[in-house]
Design brief:
This protein is mostly helical. It is built from six helices and no strands.
Length: 154
């Protein structure tokens, strides 16, 4: 929560370089790190602390809902990253994690578009499907459509 400065985001902005407010046209991608709370909230320490607690609780609820959705039906990862985005409105560590994640997702998307990687993935998927088909065929040949254990006898 603490950025190491009395002014929210001051040290991070100085270390990071220009912000979107400088008119460089980069948009929010190069926006400075730190709190995005309204100025009247940041001006009062108790109000800012309660604002941060509220943002943390809301973000935590969204992240927990996303984690619950991972094994259940629902867009689990999207909801988790949504909770991280909520945290990123207030916490520098969440902003850094979100930037790192965006960079890694972009790199993975670029690698996935490489024709050699696509060809390799198609070959590996085909081999996996053939192996599963052979194993299913062996199972059906040996046991038929009945289970190998006797459930009816218990």
């Amino acid at each position: 929560m603490n950025t190491g400065s009395d002014k929210p985001g001051e040290a991070a902005v100085a270390a990071h370089g220009a912000t979107a407010a400088d008119g460089d046209g980069e948009g929010q991608a190069e926006r400075g790190l730190g709190s995005r709370a309204p100025e009247f909230v940041k001006a009062r320490r108790a109000l800012h602390l309660s604002w941060q607690v509220g943002v943390f609780i809301v973000g935590l609820a969204v992240v927990v809902a996303g984690i619950i959705m991972l094994p259940l039906p629902g867009p689990g990862w999207v909801v988790i990253f949504g909770g991280m985005a909520i945290w990123a409105t207030e916490f520098v560590w969440a902003q850094l994690v979100l930037r790192w994640t965006k960079r890694k997702v972009t790199e993975a998307a670029q690698r996935a578009l490489d024709p050699r990687v696509r060809r390799r993935n198609i070959i590996l998927t085909s081999i996996g499907v053939v192996i599963i088909g052979v194993l299913a065929g062996i199972y059906l040949w040996k046991f038929g459509l009945e289970m190998p254990w006797k459930i009816k006898d218990q």
